[in-house]
Design a protein that fits this description.
This protein is mainly alpha-helical. It folds into two domains: about 10-60, no CATH class; about 65-154, no CATH class. The chain has five helices and four strands; from the N terminus they run ααβαβααββ. It has helices at about 10-25, 30-60, 65-75, 105-115, 120-135, and strands at about 65, 100, 145, 150-154.
Length: about 150
């Protein structure tokens, strides 16, 4: 694959970590930095794809799940079925709800917090509730997510 030069400033601590990883991996620092940047770009592309899919589902009137139901499921001590969701009327005012397509990611989050109880899922759920409240009360809060006018990134 052809490569192009890209010059940018970097924190000295980050550079040292990249060089350390490169030594352990017997690779160049440029290779390691390229992998990190590729991972970031791939993650953003995946997020864009998920946002497009979510917007498509909303436009088609897909069932959604109320935030309080989602938090209850997330915090449940026992494995219980993922919330079913409901169909809101198209004329409903702005609301913040979860699509059923968020299930794989939310199952991963719940499993991760269960494997790492020191991270305190209750505190994470409280932060999630705060973000939901801010977005519900101030729909334009946060930065616009890339070129999606109606999507905010907090």
């Amino acid at each position: 694959m052809a490569s192009a030069s890209f010059t940018h400033g970097m924190d000295p601590e980050l550079r040292a970590e990249i060089e350390k990883i490169a030594r352990f991996e017997d690779r160049s620092a440029s290779y390691v930095a390229n992998l990190a940047i590729r991972g970031f770009v791939d993650e953003r592309q995946a997020t864009r794809d998920l946002v497009r899919e979510g917007l498509r589902q909303v436009a088609e009137g897909a069932p959604s799940i109320r935030p309080e139901e989602m938090r209850d499921w997330l915090l449940a001590d026992v494995d219980r079925p993922f919330p079913e969701g409901w169909k809101a009327p198209l004329s409903a005012p702005m609301r913040l709800e979860y699509l059923r397509s968020s299930q794989p990611g939310l199952r991963w989050v719940r499993a991760y917090y269960r494997r790492h109880p020191q991270l305190d899922i209750r505190r994470a759920a409280a932060s999630l509730r705060t973000a939901e409240t801010v977005l519900s009360e101030h729909p334009a809060a946060g930065r616009r997510f890339e070129d999606f006018e109606a999507v905010r990134d907090t």
